[in-house]
Automatic annotation (TrEMBL):
The organism's taxonomic lineage, starting at the top: Eukaryota, Viridiplantae, Streptophyta, Embryophyta, Tracheophyta
Binding residues annotated for Ca(2+) 2, in chain numbering: 194, 249, 257
Catalytic activity: 2 a phenolic donor + H2O2 = 2 a phenolic radical donor + 2 H2O
E.C. designation(s): 1.11.1.7
Residue numbers binding substrate: 163
Function: Removal of H(2)O(2), oxidation of toxic reductants, biosynthesis and degradation of lignin, suberization, auxin catabolism, response to environmental stresses such as wounding, pathogen attack and oxidative stress. These functions might be dependent on each isozyme/isoform in each plant tissue.
An example Gene Ontology CC term for this record: extracellular region
Residues where Ca(2+) 1 binds: 67, 70, 72, 74, 76, 89
Annotated keywords: Calcium, Disulfide bond, Glycoprotein, Heme, Hydrogen peroxide, Iron, Metal-binding, Oxidoreductase, Peroxidase, Secreted, Signal
Co-factor note (free text): Binds 1 heme b (iron(II)-protoporphyrin IX) group per subunit. Binds 2 calcium ions per subunit.
Annotated site (Transition state stabilizer): 62
Pfam annotation, one family: peroxidase
Cofactor(s) for this UniProt protein: heme b; Ca(2+)
Protein name as it appears in the record: Peroxidase
Amino acid sequence: MARQCCTIVFPAALVLLLLGSADAQLEVGFYRKSCPNAEAIVRAEISRVMTVAPTLGGPLLRFFFHDCFVRGCDASILLNATDSSNPAEKDAIPNSFLRGYKVIDTIKANLEKACPSTVSCADVLALIARDVVSLAKGPYWEVPTGRRDGRVSIMSEALNMLPGFTANISSLKSQFAAQGLSVKDLVVLSGAHTLGNAHCFTVTNRIYNFSGRGDNTDTDPALDKRYVPKLRGKCSPLPADAIKLIEMDPGSFLSFDNSYFTLVSKRRGLFESDAVLLDDSETRAYVLRQANAPPTEFFEDFGVSMVNMGNIGVLTGSQGEIRKQCALRN
Ligand code: HEM
């Protein structure tokens, strides 16, 4: 009996151990000995940037999401195409408006000066995301590091893996689940839309031509009718203002707070992918709870979910490489 019991229990324990070790590959303070100033070097530059060009905070945070969702958090988003017949992730439309590549290059150059070939570009993106959020008055969390950089970057993968701004709740849930992220991670991480700007083309259909009729009443029923004139005041019909920028969280788009949830709860989230968080009981309950609460719970959850996202498909140990320049394979 006892032997039978253990042949069943032991493999299960082994599986748990293996799963545990997959998570444990990253480590807080991974560069403690090899590059003790690594995190301080990143933070110093992000502090400077957030003072002189605070609107770069949004795209710099978004880089981490767009990196992790395509081939894992391996800085594949930063690689240049090898030639024009093999476009890279950065050439995909959803990535075309990312800004801040120079900031990343400056940080990487400073790191190379201090500790050559030691700190990965993938970790740089993870640390930048944390520093942007905390310097924008949001939460601070410890970032597990030890990621290595990938050598492959393919445009079509970015097109397939990144959720679209017209996504419905079931696609969002399944795209997050495919990355090992929960429904809670989805709603918590969407709270990043408290920071930054979007282009008018992401909302024009919702305010002018939702069902294709294009008359004055053809607006998205999921959008607060009283909010439509405000948005129309900012964005004219296509193509006039297609690439004009609007604040996603008007009034506090440079500070990380929980007002995103207040907006979504009032049916004033900018994208359809924000509005649909009211369509699922779990995401809806979270939105409504955060809408009227101090940001304590959201701040704590955000750090946890960012660490979860930062675990997606990481390369560690002898996998990949430590790039010398983030745009180029060694
Ligand atoms: C849930 C699925 C998501 C969708 C469909 C989505 C979509 C978008 C879109 C369409 C924009 C506007 C881009 C532009 O017009 O330039 C945007 C901006 C942004 N997103 Fe998301 N996003 C999602 C999740 C996330 C996550 C998980 C994060 C980070 C944790 C994030 C962070 C940001 C930030 C910071 C901006 C502002 C960028 C800037 O200021 O340039 N998003 N997102």
